[in-house]
Amino acid sequence: MGSFLIQRFFLFLLISQSVAPETIFLENKKPTAYEVLKDFNFPIGLLPKGVLDYDLDSSSGKFSAFLNGSCSFSLEGSYQLKYKNIIKGYISKGKLASLEGVSVKLLFMWVNIVEVSRRGDDLEFSVGIAGAFFPIDNFEECPQCGCGVNCNNQLVRKIKKNPFVSSY
């Protein structure tokens, strides 16, 4: 009887050892940065392809996203964007605030995008003293560093512009 229990015990250990790491892996799998954007009601195309990792403090909303290096691209040939290798800010439902690491070229100078807010089916991008609205469906696809959304000679998907730029 004793050897039967010992055999059962070792069989249990063998089975639990083979199942446990996979179970632990599945339980500890953290969502991607793109999934986190969706959780906060943002489209994935706010971040370029290739985010390596991120940190998120769920109590304060403070986040950092990490790219392999700095990243720049043009959208529709008119909007030039730059992402630093670390993007920081605070995220809440429908709002990215105190944003650092993302800039857009306006006329002849680069300005930091400091806030992005979701307003229904539009996103409002603020550079501090001015802002612009764009349809959210412009950001369904993640741009790629170097070529934006027009990579591998694909057809250019036009960014729907909103001619209205507001100043605060």
Protein topology:
Blueprint lengths: L1 H27 L4 H7 L13 E4 L5 E5 L4 E5 L3 E14 L2 E12 L2 E4 L2 E5 L2 E5 L3 E6 L29 E3 L1
Antiparallel strand pairs: 1-2, 2-4, 3-4, 4-5, 5-6, 5-7, 7-8, 8-9, 9-10
Instruction: Provide the number of structural domains.
Output: 2
Radius of gyration: 22 Å
The level-1 CATH class of the largest domain:
Mainly Beta
List low-confidence stretches.
Answer: 4-25, 155-168
CATH topology assignment of the largest domain: at5g01610, DUF538 DOMAIN
Number of helices: 2
State the order of secondary-structure elements, H for helix, E for strand. HHEEEEEEEEEE
Gap between N and C termini:
82 Å
Give the overall shape.
Answer: globular
InterPro entries: At5g01610-like, DUF538
Signal peptide: 1-21
Keywords: Signal
General description of the model:
The chain folds into 2 domains: about 1-30; about 35-165, at5g01610, DUF538 DOMAIN (Roll), CATH 2.30.240. About 20% of the residues lie in helices and about 40% in strands. It has 2 helices and 10 strands, in the order ααββββββββββ. A hairpin with a 3-residue loop joins strand 3 and strand 4 (about 80-90). The chain is globular and about 45 Å long. The termini are far apart. The model is unreliable at about 5-25 and about 155-168 (pLDDT under 50).
